[in-house]
Amino acid sequence: MTDQALESRAVCDSQSEMAEIVLPNDANPLSALLGGRLMHWIDLAGAMAAHRHARSYVVTASVDHIDFLVPVRVGDLVILRSSVNRVFHSSMEVGVKVFVENYIADTAKHVASAYLTFVAVDGAGKHLRVAPVVPETDEQRRRYDDAGRRREIRRSELERRRKAAR
Ligand SMILES: CC(C)(COP(=O)(O)OP(=O)(O)OC[C@H]1O[C@@H](n2cnc3c(N)ncnc32)[C@H](O)[C@@H]1OP(=O)(O)O)[C@@H](O)C(=O)NCCC(=O)NCCS
The whole model's pTM is what? Predict the structure, then answer.
């Protein structure tokens, strides 16, 4: 891992938003958005915040479980908001929250949330250290603390799976 002096960056510097209109090609025969398509958008939205924060290439190391809370239909406007919750060494946890907006009724519903871990790499795939992220609001500090707890759960689960595979 390359060691370099890294300047901290605020969460708001890399927060990102992505919008998609659901087209027939994104949907199942009942005109509802495919879960796999939403997962693809979540990965992209998460990577945007990770790239912006790390200012490097990133790869997706893991995605925590995703619940699909409400169906999304063809023609709906899907908004995905992402932010870096916490940086560890070469990895960072990014939270993505997805909403469906009805632009006629001017309403928004929470569709899904996910936590993704991205690892920063150079062009040769070597891991890079990531600049620390500075939470500035109460909400950002809560996410920062929660991300530390989730990392411990991920690590012990990964360890358990590695042992089981031996
Ligand atoms: C993710 C990947 C880079 C990890 O590399 P590795 O050499 O096994 O990882 P290491 O044990 O050295 O850990 C590197 C970092 O990744 C984190 N990490 C590794 N596996 C992880 C997992 N499953 N979930 C969350 N974090 C993980 C480690 O905690 C560590 O973080 P830190 O540096 O902040 O402490 C590697 O497995 C990889 O390249 N996977 C494929 C990624 C990819 O192609 N994604 C697209 C989907 S196809």
Answer: 0.95
